[in-house]
Amino acid sequence: MYDLLQLEQIQPIGMRDDEGQILIIAENIASPPEQCEKCGNSPLYRHGKRRSTYADTPIHGKPVKVEIETRRYRCKACGTVVTPSSPSLDDKRVATRRLVRYIQDRCFGTTFTWLAKEVGLALNTVKGITQDYAAHLEEQVVLETPRLLGLDELYILGKPRAVLVNLEMHSMFDILESRTKAHLTDYFKGLKDKNRIEWVVIDMWKPYELVIGTQLPNARIVIDRFHVVKEASKKLDGLRKHLQSKLSSQDRINLKKHLRWSLLRNEHNRTERDLENIEYIRKHYPELFLALTIKEEFFGIYDAPSREMAEKAFQDWKSSIPEDFRKYYGPVANMVDRHHRDIFNYFDCPVTNGYTEAMNGVMKAMNRLGRGYSFEILRARSLFYRVMRESGTVVTHTGETKDISKPVSTTGDRIEKSYGTPISTLESLAEHDDLLRKS
Ligand SMILES: [Zn+2]
């Protein structure tokens, strides 16, 4: 029979279609061991046969099982029974090694259920192979520690997770299971090359500030400008509610239903309709228009050409808040005063966590498709996607280059560093629901 199996020491002797799967009967033709592996005595004597079934890569879209009969040997001196194996078999998984590779190549791109059905393995076996592979990638791939780090959170699988982004490369550097102080401290304690980090862009989540202070003492903090101005927008909406409560019910409905969004939309995103609405507000609700103007002046602080001028613009803004609005805009001013240094650091390092918008799509896709996946899998998938698809060369902790599953790139002896998956790649994967393809 033609050796359709091409497995070392395994000789096929027959095959049949067996209830939707292909069953190949084979025997292990390994020569008997020369001596007992335990006591070194020889010779060994035949000791019956053992039949085991290994899963193999699918043929014609059908799962394949290989039933292998292996002759066993027994040592007369110590009683040890030896069952020869084959380098092509993974005895732990009861699968061929090439099937394990087949699953590794696909495990991040399809559901476990689908893959388990395709290869005819138990769901937990497929999950186990994937988890081992994720751990392997984790060991092999070294992502270069960013100079500019964005630290933010996303709700993934029901919990807030800390997301670390390389703001220079616009790539995902890591996602942590949690964003608690203890978790972040452990993470940064063990982070390789953490002194490379010069700037960290964060929101005003206290643990970030505390952990950076202790674990990255040389890094400087920038409070993300979008988080800062968002506070002013929230207060404007509060003021809108307060002011409309004094109006007739007709006006109230008008404001809430028709004018609210034009009021809250950022200046550069306004439509024709918004401009008309704002003109209407100016004419009919002058107090609200004033509230809007004050919010916009606050946003305008970020347009200042230098740190000094921004600090001055803020002081001017603070003292211009009318008494009636102090209850609303006062806390915004206090917030800026509390975080003064880190907020105005923006003018020394004008970067933002503006990728957050793109990441929201990624988060939604993860949550939509993520059920049945562990957080570790989602994490591995997001971090190593590019590494797996586009670059075969990774750099290990010891500095040697290794090939991960794809051919080594031909960039001579240049060591290719990885920065993680570009945000744009993640975004487009999420858009097409390809981040984790649903069966
Ligand atoms: Zn022995």
Give an account of the 3D structure.
There is one protein chain. By secondary structure, the chain is α+β, with helices and mostly antiparallel strands. It folds into three domains: 10-94, no CATH class; 148-223 and 354-431, Nucleotidyltransferase, domain 5, CATH 3.30.420; 225-347. It is built from 15 helices and 14 strands. The strands form four sheets. Strands 1, 2, 3, 4 and 5 form a five-stranded mixed sheet that branches. A five-stranded mixed sheet has the order 10-9-8-11-12, with helices on both faces. A two-stranded antiparallel sheet has the order 6-7. Helix 6 packs antiparallel against helix 7, helix 6 (225-244) packs antiparallel against helix 9 (286-300) and helix 7 (249-264) crosses helix 8. The two termini are 37 Å apart. 30% of the residues are buried. Zinc ion binds next to loops. Zinc ion is lined by residues 36, 38-39, 41, 75, 77-78, 80.
- Total individual domains: 3
Low-pLDDT parts are: 390-398, 403-416
The CATH architecture of the largest domain:
2-Layer Sandwich
Total strand segments? 14
Q: Give me the number of helical elements.
A: 15
> Structural class, from secondary structure content?
alpha+beta
Chain-averaged pLDDT: 85
The sequence of SSEs as H and E is EEEEEEEHHHEEEHEHEHHHHHHHHHEEH
What percent of residues adopt helix (DSSP H or I)?
40-55%
Given this structure, which CATH class of the largest domain is correct?
Alpha Beta
Task: Spell out which ligands are present.
Answer: zinc ion
Percent of sequence in beta strands: 15-25%
Task: Classify the oligomer.
Answer: single chain
Q: Whole-Å distance between the termini?
A: 37 Å
Largest sheet: 5 strands, mixed
Specify the overall morphology: elongated
